[in-house]
Specification:
The protein is α+β, with helices and mostly antiparallel strands and 539 residues long. The protein has 20 helices and 16 strands. It has helices spanning 10-14, 17-21, 71-84, 103-112, 125-159, 164-175, 205-210, 251-270, 274-291, 296-304, 331-344, 370-382, 401-414, 429-432, 434-441, 445-465, 471-480, 485-491, 496-510, 517-532, and strands spanning 8-9, 24-28, 36-37, 39-42, 56-60, 88-92, 116-119, 179-183, 188-192, 218-221, 226-232, 237-244, 313-321, 349-354, 357-364, 387-391. Strands 2-7-6-5-4 form a five-stranded mixed sheet. The chain starts with 7 loop residues before the first strand and ends in a 7-residue tail after the last helix. This is PucR family transcriptional regulator ligand-binding domain-containing protein. Belongs to the CdaR family. Residues 292-413 form the CdaR GGDEF-like domain. It comes from Nocardioides potassii.
């Protein structure tokens, strides 16, 4: 794993005007020309290695070096330079040597891969040092400005409480290359392709990734062309962020990687519940499938999440805790049950949370009985939780996902909140009859006006009477028990006489005969429309 360092490479430095005028020639260690220069030093001291830091370039005329035939001393001089991390030696001909350099010096530099450059023309070392130094400073200032832009970008993401997808998309835009998040087992969790990605970036990923070791927090693997940043602490790393970088990464790219890792860690810290994280990820995938079902990026991410989307059938399901249940269902526990049930059925499912509803999308082979699989899933969930389960129609292609999910929501809205003995485990539009029709009509103003017109006189009376009477509840009991007024009265815990008194009062207010089938149907429709539209909730 190569260390990531900023600066100008020696190869770039040799192309600067002052160096070009000196007619440079590389006589050894050409493979090391891509090393970045941190600074330039000119000295004739034999112990120069002890004065240099990693990344320093040595300029010398050779006057202080050992004799040409003292091979061991020349070897020791080069060994010390290589050990210090020097990027190369530049020798000006004329003072000590006018032709070829000593062969032991050339051989030692070649052995260490330490570039050895001779200058054919006399030049001022100060001019070389100044030119390289200015370029290094300019490069570092540019890196600092870019780092500031990176800081501002991730600060905005933090303020907006961006999720992992938004963070990774920002990284992709800034680096213009592929971005991968993998878990501790080296399985890709998310992937955003770069503009030049031919589709093979993830090929053989787990095996390749296991061979890449990062000593510190961030490092560059030249073999794969990866900039790798650890996610989590050294003791509790939960994954890695990998950015495609065929060339040694700049300081800006390192800053992007490390700020992205910090943003992902902060998001994880704020949301430690792994189930919630999964639901958020699944919600992003479900939103992508409903908004743009043919997006290559969405399809790739679904496959990575273990949710097959090619040549499959789909059905949307909504799971909703019942309002007013004796033991209200905890949505986290319900979600965990749904996930376990789907896993037990080997049914791939996206499980997401929207406004305290669980929206579930299941994927099955085209030959499978999807309705039966949904029924079995619902039965397992209903064993443990008092919830409303609603399903949309099965669709044979991704283009129908939005329709199925929307229909499941409409069915959930129409399904009765109070569980009845003959209710199925999962409701479908065909099972809801009149409720289903009204759910499809949704918030149609004509339906709302009809319900208001039918029920407004009774609601007005109830508001004026307070707790002394509830005529709307009496009408609802009547239409829900059409064959027996005795059962209707019992459902309200009223005597038959008291119930008949209320019905008589209803007829008086509405100027209508409640035994007229048309009147009863009209009131029944109005009550259902009012309930589905968010009006009064009836016991």
């Amino acid at each position: 794993m190569a260390e990531v360092t900023p600066g100008v490479t020696l190869e770039e430095a040799l192309g600067l005007p002052a160096f070009r005028r000196a007619v440079p020639e590389v006589v050894a260690g050409r493979a090391g020309l891509d090393r970045p220069i941190r600074w330039v030093h000119a000295t004739e001291r034999l112990d120069a290695g002890s004065l240099l830091r990693a990344g320093d370039l040595l300029l010398t005329m050779g006057t202080g070096l050992p004799a040409d035939d003292d091979e061991s001393a020349l070897d020791a001089f080069v060994d010390e330079l290589a050990e210090s991390g020097a990027v190369g030696i530049v020798v000006e001909l004329g003072r000590r040597w006018s032709g070829d350099l000593p062969s032991p010096l050339v051989a030692a530099c070649e052995r260490h891969g330490l570039p050895l450059v001779v200058l054919g023309q006399e030049t001022r070392f100060a001019a070389l040092a100044q030119e390289v130094g200015e370029r290094v400073v300019d490069r570092q200032l540019t890196e600092l400005r870019e780092a500031q832009r990176v800081h501002e970008t991730f600060t905005e993401l933090s303020f907006s409480q961006a999720g992992p997808v938004e963070i990774l998309q920002a990284v992709q835009r800034m680096v213009a290359g592929p971005v991968v998040v993998e878990n501790a087992q080296h399985r890709p969790l998310d992937y955003f392709a770069g503009p030049d990605d031919a589709g093979g970036f993830l090929d053989g990923w787990p095996a390749r990734s296991r061979r890449v070791e990062v000593a510190g927090r961030t490092g560059w693997d030249s073999a794969n062309g990866w900039l790798v940043t650890r996610l989590g602490t050294a003791d509790q790393a939960w994954g890695r962020l990998v950015i495609g970088s065929p060339e040694p990464p700049s300081q800006r790219l390192v800053a992007v990687a490390e700020r992205a890792a910090a943003a992902l860690a902060l998001h994880r810290l704020h949301d430690r519940d792994r189930g919630t994280l999964m639901r958020r990820t699944h919600l992003e995938l479900l939103s992508g499938l409903t908004d743009d079902p043919d997006s290559d990026d969405v399809l790739r991410r679904c496959e990575l999440a273990g949710f097959p989307v090619r040549r499959r059938s789909f059905a949307g399901v909504v799971v909703r805790p019942r309002v007013g249940a004796a033991s209200p269902a905890d949505l986290d526990e319900v979600a965990a049950t749904v996930v376990r049930a789907a896993h037990g059925l080997r049914l791939p499912a996206l499980v997401s949370e929207v406004e305290r509803d669980l929206r579930v999308l299941v994927s099955a082979a085209p030959t499978a009985d999807v309705d039966d699989l949904v029924d079995r899933l619902a039965a397992r969930v209903a064993q443990h939780h008092d919830v409303v389960l609603a399903a949309g129609r099965v669709v044979p292609a991704r283009s129908g996902i939005a329709r199925s999910v929307t229909e499941a929501g409409q069915v959930a809205d129409a399904a009765p909140q109070v569980r009845r003995d003959n209710d199925p485990d999962v409701h479908r539009l065909a099972d809801l009859h009149l409720r289903g029709l009204l759910a499809l009509l949704g918030e149609d103003d004509r339906l709302r006006l009809f319900a208001d017109r039918e029920l407004a006189p009774l609601k007005g009376h109830d508001r004026a009477a307070g707790a002394r009477t509830d005529l709307v509840a009496a009408v609802r009991a009547l239409v829900m028990h059409p064959a027996s007024k005795t059962e209707a009265a019992a459902s309200l815990h009223l005597s038959r006489a008291a119930f008949y008194d209320r019905l008589a009062r209803v007829e008086e207010i509405l100027d209508a005969d409640l035994d007229d089938p048309d009147v009863r149907v009209s009131l029944h429709v109005a009550l259902l429309a009012d309930e589905l539209g968010g009006g009064d909730q009836f016991p």
